[in-house]
Write a structure and sequence with these properties.
Strand content: 15-25%
Radius of gyration: 19 Å
Strand order of the largest sheet: 1-4-5-6-7-8-9-10
CATH class: Alpha Beta
Distance between the termini: 29 Å
Oligomer: single chain
Order of helices and strands: EEEHEHEHHEHHEHEHHEEH
CATH topology: pyruvate-formate lyase- activating enzyme
Largest sheet: 8 strands, mixed
Structural class: alpha/beta
Number of helices: 10
Length: 291
């Protein structure tokens, strides 16, 4: 039996897959808008404990083919340790096709391109990466610990055999920095090669609000229709060099959109315009949203 160290988080796309805790908490854990791991101190689990969990999972789900490495950023582990975990997973799950994990700019910048290539060759072939914003002022205010250049550089190190699922938080700049937030974030996407892109709406848990406003005292939140305007401007500014699967179906979103960029950009913009024209009746009621 697996005993998880809670709280436990995973991307929505990993809901049906095995969640294997290889670290506890987040190695950075300073983003002011995030409350995911504030109750945890970062720890690296022992290889023995990890392998024991793998044995348990393999006995219960021998045909599993997708595994997510938790908690916040398994890439903080030494590459040698990760390779041992990946090797044991491949031995234990003969149908294994994909291993995924959260990743941060800090994690990626600390590893060489050769290390990342080696991890991808051993089936760590999908990372979930929170861009949040491409604007340096906002990045500083949300204490992200990196700037736009760091984000672009880190994403540029990811090998083509390792797919990137990136998230952007609409409304993160508030009224004051909305224009800069969208323009600079679109610049990041246009100058990297993400494969999947999702937009979320800013939502602050109660235990994160005080810290967020401490660093972003002049923040003024946007309403739903101002958020939709950001979404519209964002899509208009996106000119990716590669095909991107786009979603805004996170539980936080007032309007759910789905398509492939740039092929479906016009349709997505038409859906946005229609929703804005219709008004509140076109939006997901706030009581059904969450972050």
């Amino acid at each position: 039996m697996i005993t998880y160290d809670y709280p436990l988080f995973r991307p929505p796309a990993e809901a049906e897959n095995i969640i294997l805790q290889v670290t506890l908490g987040c190695s950075y854990n300073n983003c002011s808008f995030c409350s995911m791991y504030k109750t945890k101190k970062y720890q690296e689990r022992s290889l023995e404990a990890i392998c024991k969990d793998i044995d348990t999972f393999a006995a219960i789900y021998p045909n599993a083919h997708k595994i997510f490495l938790a908690d916040g950023d398994a890439l903080a582990l030494p590459t040698a340790t990760l390779l041992k975990i990946l090797a044991y997973l491949q031995t234990s799950f003969t149908r294994l096709r994909r291993v995924s994990t959260y990743a941060s700019a800090q994690n990626l910048l600390e590893k060489s391109e050769q290390e990342l290539e080696l991890l991808a060759a051993n089936k760590l072939n999908l990372i979930y990466y929170g861009i949040e914003t491409g604007n340096d002022v906002i990045l500083k205010k949300i204490t992200k610990g990196v700037n736009q250049s760091d984000i672009i550089k880190s994403l540029g190190k990811v090998p083509k055999s390792m797919k990137i699922s990136a998230t952007v938080i609409l409304g993160l700049g508030g009224e004051q920095y909305s224009q800069e937030h969208i323009a600079d974030t679109a610049h990041v996407i246009n100058n990297t090669a993400v494969n999947y892109l999702s937009t979320l709406q800013l939502g602050l848990e109660e235990d994160a609000e005080e810290n967020f406003y401490k660093h972003f005292a002049d923040f003024r939140p946007l309403n739903d229709f101002e958020i939709l305007d950001e979404q519209k401007r964002f899509l208009e500014l996106l000119h990716p060099a590669n095909q991107i699967i786009f979603r805004s179906n996170h539980a936080s979103n007032a309007l759910h959109l789905s398509g492939t960029l740039p092929k479906d950009t016009k349709r997505l913009l038409d859906e946005l315009k229609m929703a804005i024209d219709i008004g509140n009746d076109a939006l997901v009621p706030s009581m059904y949203r969450g972050f």
